[in-house]
Amino acid sequence: MIVVHIIEICLLVYFGYTTLYALIFFTGGLFYRDKNFAPANNKRFCVLIPSYKEDSVIVEVAKAALKQNYPADKYSVVVIADSLQDATVARLRELPIKTVVVKFESSTKIKSLNEALQQVGDDYDYCVILDAHNVREADFLMKVNSLHSLGYRSIQATRAPKNANTTMAVLDGISEAVNYSIISKGGTALHASAGVKGSGVSFEFAPIKKIFAEMDSVGGFDRELELKLIENDMTIYFSSNTYVMDEKVGSMEVFKKQRTRWISSQFFYLRKYFGSGMKSLLRFDIVYFNSAILRNIQLPRLLNIGLLGVFTFLLFFLRDYLQVNYLVWPALFLTNCLIILFAIPGRFYNKNLLRAMLELPSVFLNMFLILFKLKNANKKFIHTPHNTK
Description:
There is one protein chain. By secondary structure, the chain is α/β, with parallel strands linked by helices. The protein has 2 domains: 2-31 and 266-379, no CATH class; 45-249, Spore Coat Polysaccharide Biosynthesis Protein SpsA, Chain A (Alpha-Beta Complex). The chain is 51% helix and 13% strand. It has 15 helices and 8 strands. Helix 3 (86-92) links the parallel strand 2 and strand 3 (98-102). It is globular. 42% of the residues are buried. The model has no long low-confidence stretch (mean pLDDT 93).
């Protein structure tokens, strides 16, 4: 019985912590306010688009990347062609962009970025990173240039869903929107890190080139990048009204591959930076401690709420044997549900949301099974295929 009580307390501590964390950051996000964009001197941008086997979309994405309300001589679009067909490379070279062809025995995003940065030179002020399926709004460079002029050295734009053609795409878009409401807005408002996504980001050129040169990440390079940015006093600012259209995963199989990579990299970097994270706490560097440990030590939000729901149901039948009043469990579960419901932006409340919610049990089960397939997942590059243009 002692063992059972210990397990009960451990579970309560964990779910109490994750609930409080989400509540604090969601509440912080309520105080987030967009910055007003003001005219600023036009600085030079290098727009990097790594493309690994993305022959079906990269040419159209490159064309779209040129459509900016920004002086054409102040930015360069650079497509990094990794394992693209010769015909695709030839079409890219017909465009007024730079095409950097790379070839690696084992490809990774950071290798592609480093090779391109070595070839483009240093005549830039800022560096933008996009994915091979991203399409920016026409004012993207104008907006990030304005934000950089205010002193923000790293900026994460909002990656709005490009597609909602499947239930999984809808759920993927909602998941990212919830993270923006809690982690990104909350992190910015609370003067912590807003978190880095793999694309739709802009950095000061010289320091990011140096940071990338020190990295050799395989999976989840954005998690390590976030810590490197914080170390270099480049805490990430989130802009909710600067947009990049981002393709969401369209099937369960692609979803599982993507989440396997994400979850594996999360715990990989938790182990790698646990020591430095604890040392940062001793220095009262809460920003680094939050990104290195407090966020990484949590399971993904859907797994948390799903497991909490399962435990709440099962423990109802054992409530007479619990150390802590059983009502704590439904209270935690209800609090998490309310946080998620309020964190979902109003534009997602439609019939697609209702259909997507019916898929949640299946998605939860698949994510739970992923936890048993993480071994060595971060040791190889797992490509997420894309199809929409």
